[in-house]
Amino acid sequence: MEEEAVARSLAALAHPVRLRVFRALVVAGPQGLTPGVIQEGLAIPPTTLSFHLKELATAGLVSQERASRNLVYRAAFDRMNDVIGFLTENCCAGAPCAVAPDGQPCSC
C-alpha cells in the first residue's frame, strides 16, 4: 500500500466522529448499517453523519451500496487490513510477529 493512501486513511480516522462511525461499521460486520441506524446509535445529526461518511468513503475506508430504498454502509475490511499491514510491516525488524492470545504485544 502506498504511503499517501495510508496517510489519507489515517487522516480520515483522526476525527473522533469518523472513528466512532468506522468502529460501529466494523462491529456491524459485512451486513453493514444504514445511516439511520448509525445516526440513532451514535446520536449524530444527519448532515454531520453524511459529511463524515463521505470523508470515510473518499479515504476508501467504507463502501456504500443501495439496497432497495436504503443506503447501506460497510467497513472496507480489505483497506483496513492493508493500513494495519503497512503500519506493522517492519515490526520486530521484519521477523514474524503477532499479538499473543492474552493480548500482550509481541515480544521482539
SSE arrangement:
Blueprint: H1 3-13, H2 16-28, H3 35-42, H4 46-58, E1 62-67, E2 70-75, H5 77-88
Antiparallel strand pairs: 1-2
Explain the overall architecture.
This protein has one domain (3-94): Winged helix-like DNA-binding domain superfamily/Winged helix DNA-binding domain (Arc Repressor Mutant, subunit A, Orthogonal Bundle), CATH 1.10.10.10. The relative contact order is 0.16. It is mostly helical and 108 residues long. It has five helices and two strands, in the order ααααββα. Helix 1 crosses helix 5 (77-88) and helix 2 packs across helix 4. The protein is elongated.
Keywords:
mainly alpha; 5 helices; 108 residues; two-stranded antiparallel sheet
Brief synopsis:
The chain is mainly alpha-helical and 108 residues long. It has helices at residues 3-13, 16-28, 35-42, 46-58, 77-88, and strands at residues 62-67, 70-75. The protein has a single domain (3-94), classed as Winged helix-like DNA-binding domain superfamily/Winged helix DNA-binding domain (Arc Repressor Mutant, subunit A), CATH 1.10.10.10.
